[in-house]
Structures are given as structure tokens and as C-alpha cells.
């Protein structure tokens, strides 16, 4: 919440019960002037938002009561006063709840030496679109690029989430509200600036893949920090499986719930054997065979392969983009990495198996369904998980059985939950609603950012700072480093 909002909330909470006492100390005109000044300051400096409407209404009622109240009159608790106090309490409940569960939040400021710019690319592919029902459709992707700049920050910052992602978010989480309910996000400082000049250097390239059914660009905290450290990040938006995408002609597309339903029809025949294998506490090798067989044909496996195809197709465009247009000469094609969160982390891992141009990759809390059980990485790999607990069916224990011929980092962020790697804890700072873990939100972000940056710095830039030192620095980060045969 913003400072003047907090002041207004405190005022409307206490004034209904203390205004008569104050009026014995202050003249009406001074108290009224102070309240009006605070309200006007809030509206001019911070801006109004609908979550504060109960507070505004309460303040208007209080102003009226101050004008009509005589401080000297003997106080009597009448029926009307009791009704008035009940109304005050009923308004105070949403007055406190709404601004706190849907706040104008503060994203952490990036710590790198670069200002961060964003640029959008519309990529038309020759990949058949399997999600739409129109025969002959080809897959189209909207890619948001986060990049380093040395430009001054006197331009207007990018709004938090575009219209399509806001619509998608409302449809998924706040279906009873109109999209305009998220207009308060315009007040969030994103620390990124659209289309500012890119710094005159060549930078390592990272491709980021989002979680399934999430806001594709809802990772400002993570991506802004990494870009500020000198990376160009191509933020994938896997069309119809993100919450929303906006194309240059204004067309908006959203998560396809009908396609999801068709894909989930036979899910339990794949999931049930896996759950039973863990429940029966079978020996590792016996359980491994069951999981490997059950994962074949599973909807998540198909999805990860589709998304990996999006990633590799995007990789195919890098040479052209490095020769023409906005990013001409700025992409270091010898230093390419991929990473992702949730299903996007699985897709990043799958793409690494398929494409030798990828020199390092990271999976942030994603189950990597697919072919990894039958192969081994040839490149450095980071797997960072949340703290799922002892009863979690750890499929990745089997997926990453063979690990890598290079470095393989197995890390866990203790007391963190799956959404802690997204912006969700900032958007909805109530743990029970956001389903986040007990870890301090900003500390979890800080640890994640430092680890991911150190990983790519080490394996794309050759920086000598040891990733192992980060696990020693934070008690909440548990990490094991496996060194493959190529290092021995």
C-alpha cells in the first residue's frame, strides 16, 4: 500500500470514534482542512483506485459528521448512532481488505549497471498450429525482449502487464470483476522503458519460457534484474497457453480452456501409476520404469515438446535479427542460454536436449516431462526447486537421474513455494491467496536472482565467482553440485 492510503485508512478507522474529542481540541475548520488536504494530496500524488472507494465513502461521511457535530453537546448512544457505527465497521472491512490484497505494489529496483528496455517482436512461424480448430493455421508468437540500455530514464515506464494479460488474469483469478478492476496496475513502477536505445555492446542471449497458464511477462522481478546485469532476454509467449497475448494489429488471444480440457481427458491414466509408484515406496529402478512409461503420451510431455519447438524456432531467427533491425550486432550468438519457470522450465530443459546452440540452461521449479530420462545433458544445467516437502512426488528425481556430463546444480529454496518465483507474491501479498511459502518475498527473489545470474555469468561469461558461494551465503538455499565426466 502507498503511504497516503495508509494515512487515510488510519484516519477513517479512528475518527468515527474520536472526532468529538478532537473537536474539543481543534476548531472544525482546521480538522476539516487537514482531512481535505490529505485526501486531495492522495488523489493528486498517488491517484484514486477503486479498492479505496469504501475509504473515500467513509471519509465523506466523517466530513459531513464533523460539519454537523457540536463538540459541546452531551453524547448519548442512540439507536441511530449504533446503526452508524455498524455501517462504519461494515465499510472498514472492505476498506482494509481490498487495498491490501490488491495493492499498488513495489517491484524491487534492478541492481545492475544498465537501464532496462523492452521491445516486442511478432514472429510468424511455419509450424502447424495444433491448438486452433482452423485447418492450415500456422503458429504465431509474440516475443517480448528485455535488454540493457545506457539511456536516461526520463521516458515513461512500461505499464505493468498489457491489456490481454490483464484480461487473462481477471478471467482466471477474478472472474467476477471487470478488466478495469486492474487499472490500478498503471500505478506500479516497472523500472523498464519501451523501445529505448540498446547499449552499444554485444550481449549474451537468454530465452525465457513462462509457466503454463500464467502471465507470460509476469516475471518483471526476475527478468528486469537479469537484463540490468547485461543480458538480452527473449521472453516467450506460448500462444493460447499463456493467459494472453496482444498482436500488432490489436488482436488479443487468450488461454484456450477448451484445448486444455481435451488434453486433460486421459491425464489420470498417466498420473495414477506415478502416484501409486511413490505411494507404494517402490525401489528406485522399479519406480523409474513406471514413471518413464507413464510419461509417454502425457499431455504435459506433449506441451513441453511444443514449447521447446517454439524456443528452437526462435533460436533459428537470432542470426537474422543480429544482421537486421533493432538488435543488429548486439546478439552474442556464441553465448546462448535458456531458462524457464514451471512448465517453461521443462521446455527449456527439453530444448537443451534438442539444440546444441544452447550453452547453459536452467529449470526453475518445473517438472521436466519428456526425453530427459533417457539421455544426459552435455551442457551446464541448473535445477532450482521450491520446498515441496517430504511427501511430494519428486518426478524430477527420476528425470534428472543422469544429470550432465558438465556441471549439474541441484538447488532448493527452502520455505519457498511455486509462485515465489513469479510476481504473484507482489500482486497478491496474502500468502493464503497467493499460495506462496513462508520465505520473505524479497529475500526469495534476491536469492533466486543471484543464483540464476551467477549460473549464467559462470557458464556464458566465464566469470570466476563460484556459484557454490551463494549457497554458503544463504541458509535458505540448499545446493548440491554434480561434476560430470567431461570435467574429470
Automatic annotation (TrEMBL):
This is Carboxylic ester hydrolase. InterPro entries: AB_hydrolase_fold. The chain crosses the membrane at residues 6-23, 30-45, 51-67, 79-98. The keyword Nucleotide-binding does not apply. Gene3D superfamilies: alpha/beta hydrolase. Coiled coil: none annotated. It comes from Flavivirga algicola. The lineage of its organism: Bacteria, Pseudomonadati, Bacteroidota, Flavobacteriia, Flavobacteriales. Keywords: Hydrolase, Lipid degradation, Lipid metabolism, Membrane, Transmembrane, Transmembrane helix. It holds the Pfam family PAF-AH_p_II. The keyword Transmembrane applies.
Amino acid at each position: 500500500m502507498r503511504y497516503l492510503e495508509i494515512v487515510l485508512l488510519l484516519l477513517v478507522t479512528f475518527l468515527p470514534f474520536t472526532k468529538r474529542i478532537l473537536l474539543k481540541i481543534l476548531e472544525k475548520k482546521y480538522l476539516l482542512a487537514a482531512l481535505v488536504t490529505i485526501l486531495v494530496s492522495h488523489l493528486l500524488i498517488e491517484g484514486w483506485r477503486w479498492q479505496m472507494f469504501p475509504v473515500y465513502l467513509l471519509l465523506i461521511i466523517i466530513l459531513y459528521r464533523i460539519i454537523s457535530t457540536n463538540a459541546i453537546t452531551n453524547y448519548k448512544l442512540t439507536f441511530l448512532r449504533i446503526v452508524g457505527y455498524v455501517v462504519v465497521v461494515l465499510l472498514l472491512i472492505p476498506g482494509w481488505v481490498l487495498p491490501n490484497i490488491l495493492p499498488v505494489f513495489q517491484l524491487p529496483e534492478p541492481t545492475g549497471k544498465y537501464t532496462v528496455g523492452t521491445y516486442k517482436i511478432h514472429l510468424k512461424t511455419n509450424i502447424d498450429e495444433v491448438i486452433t480448430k482452423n485447418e492450415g493455421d500456422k503458429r504465431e508468437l509474440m516475443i517480448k525482449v528485455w535488454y540493457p540500455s545506457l539511456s536516461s530514464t526520463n521516458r515513461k515506464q512500461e505499464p505493468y502487464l498489457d491489456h490481454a494479460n490483464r484480461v487473462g488474469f481477471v478471467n482466471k483469478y477474478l472472474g467476477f470483476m471487470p478488466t478495469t478492476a486492474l487499472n490500478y496496475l498503471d500505478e506500479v513502477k516497472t523500472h523498464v522503458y519501451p523501445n529505448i536505445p540498446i547499449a552499444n555492446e554485444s550481449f549474451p542471449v537468454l530465452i525465457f519460457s513462462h509457466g503454463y497458464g500464467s502471465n507470460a511477462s509476469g516475471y518483471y522481478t526476475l527478468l528486469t534484474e537479469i537484463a540490468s546485469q547485461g543480458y538480452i532476454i527473449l521472453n516467450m509467449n506460448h500462444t493460447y497457453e499463456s493467459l494472453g497475448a496482444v498482436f500488432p494489429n490489436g488482436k488479443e488471444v487468450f488461454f484456450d480452456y477448451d484445448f486444455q480440457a481435451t488434453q486433460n481427458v486421459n491425464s489420470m491414466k498417466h498420473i495414477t501409476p506415478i502416484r501409486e509408484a511413490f505411494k507404494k515406496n517402490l525401489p528406485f529402478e522399479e519406480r523409474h520404469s513406471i514413471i518413464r512409461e507413464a510419461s509417454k503420451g502425457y499431455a504435459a510431455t506433449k506441451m513441453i515438446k511444443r514449447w521447446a519447438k517454439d524456443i528452437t524456432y526462435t533460436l533459428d531467427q537470432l542470426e537474422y535479427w543480429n544482421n537486421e533491425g533493432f538488435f543488429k550486432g548486439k546478439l552474442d550468438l556464441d553465448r546462448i542460454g535458456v531458462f524457464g519457470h514451471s512448465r517453461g522450465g521443462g521446455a527449456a530443459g527439453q530444448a537443451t536436449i534438442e539444440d546444441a546452440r544452447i550453452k547453459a540452461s536452467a529449470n526453475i521449479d518445473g517438472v521436466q516431462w519428456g526425453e530427459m530420462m533417457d539421455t544426459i545433458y552435455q551442457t551446464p544445467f541448473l535445477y532450482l526447486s521450491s520446498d515441496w516437502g517430504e511427501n511430494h512426488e519428486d518426478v524430477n528425481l527420476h528425470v534428472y537421474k543422469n544429470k550432465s556430463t558438465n556441471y549439474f546444480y541441484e538447488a532448493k529454496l527452502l520455505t519457498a513455494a511455486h509462485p515465489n518465483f513469479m510476481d504473484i507474491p507482489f500482486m497478491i501479498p496474502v500468502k493464503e491467496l497467493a499460495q506462496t511459502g513462508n520465505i520473505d518475498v524479497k529475500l526469495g527473489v534476491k536469492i533466486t536472482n543471484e543464483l540464476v545470474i551467477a549460473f549464467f555469468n559462470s557458464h556464458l561469461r566465464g566469470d570466476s565467482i563460484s556459484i557454490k558461494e551463494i549457497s554458503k551465503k544463504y541458509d535458505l538455499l540448499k545446493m548440491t553440485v554434480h561434476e560430470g565426466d567431461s570435467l574429470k
